[in-house]
Amino acid sequence: MTLLKKLNYLIETLREYGFKECLRIGWTGFFYRGTSRLLLVALSKPNYIERTSAATKFYDFRFASVVELQALSKNPEYEITQLDIDRVRTGISRCLVQFDGNLLTGYTWVWLNKLAYIADGFYLNLPDDAIYNYKALTLPTYRGFGFQGVRHLKLLELLRPEGITRLFGFVDSYNTKSLRGVKKSGFVPVGELVIKKRGTMVHSQLRLKADFWPGKPVLNDMGRSVDSPLPTGFSKGL
Questions:
Q1: What is the mean pLDDT of the chain?
Q2: Minimal CA–CA distance to 118: which of 134, 130, 95, 107?
Q3: How many CA atoms within 13 Å lie on the side-chain side of 124?
Q4: pLDDT for 223
Q5: Spatial distance between the Cα atoms of 18 and 12, rounded to a whole number of angstroms
Q6: Which of 40, 79, 132, 191 is the least buried, fewest Cβ under 10 Å from its Cβ?
Q7: Taking Cα atoms as reference points, which of 136, 141, 152 lies closest to residue 186?
Q8: What is the pLDDT of residue 26?
Q9: How many other CB atoms sit within 10 Å of the CB of residue 109?
Q10: Which residues are bridge partners to 112 per DSSP?
Q11: pLDDT for residue 120
Q12: HSE-up of 149 (CA within 13 Å, CB side)?
């Protein structure tokens, strides 16, 4: 980002979010200059507006089929791409849609693979009880009523039989709108990933809260816990 673009971004932040947020962005940009800083967040208890929750009986929540997504993708406002549809078709992701009669209210997407993509070359292995929530939209007519929080609640309800109790996501530290959005929904910080490029090298630092993984990890590929005896010929190393 050029110096002029940085100054324009700070001016826009000042106008929309005030001096305090402008100062935070400016300080973060100076302290982490040349660095991408991604905040990792998780959600287990969604926040929502009570009056909105009480009215959810008038809305239809469901996981969208491929055919349904293909029909919705014809409307550019819905921002559903062919790649999104292909991911559902191949079992990579699922999309929870919310309808008001025949009108789409919004949606939220989850990535079914436990290996969550964060940035090129950077992935995070999620705990068994967490799922990557990577894309969401509320149509303009329905914004301001807390529907995103309601969809998160419905999503966790539908996924609970599969052992899912938490949603995982991340947001760029400079993206004030997204930061406030995830906070409003009830997401809490669980760590951060800092990526810095120096010449031909890429340096990274990952920080995670110690309780992000509950209990001991399980080696699902071997079908045994970490305390189980290793097969003959394998060594625990040093």
A1: 80
A2: 134
A3: 27
A4: 45
A5: 9
A6: 79
A7: 152
A8: 66
A9: 21
A10: none
A11: 83
A12: 22
Structure-model confidence comparison of residues 173 and 190, the more confident one: 190
**Distance from C-alpha of 11 to C-alpha of 39, rounded to nearest angstrom:** 23
Token reading at 65: 């089929």
Q: Which amino acid is at 19?
A: F
127 CB burial (10 A radius; 0-12, 13-18, 19+)? middle
* pLDDT tens digits, one per residue of 207-222: 999 888 765 544 444 4
| 124 pLDDT higher than 70 | yes
Tokens of 211: 């309780």
Identity of the amino acid at 12: E
Greater confidence (105 vs 29) lies with 105
Q: Which amino acid is at 238?
A: L
pLDDT > 90? residue 35:
no
Separation of alpha carbons 203 and 200, rounded Å: 10
Among 101-105, 150-154, 218-222, the least confident range = 218-222
Q: How far apart are CA 230 and CA 238, in angstroms?
A: 15
Task: Give phi and psi for 144, each to the nearest 5.
Answer: 90, 5
Amino acid at 31: F
Q: Are 98 and 105 in contact (CB under 8 A)?
A: yes
Q: Which two tokens stand for residue 93?
A: 């992701």
Which runs of consecutive H residues, i.e. helices, occur in 45-89?
A: 50-54, 66-72, 82-89
- Give the residue from 190, 176, 184, 173 showing the smallest Cα distance to 138: 184
Mean pLDDT of 161-175: 89
Q: Which pLDDT belongs to residue 11?
A: 65
Specify the residue for token string 């989850």: 110
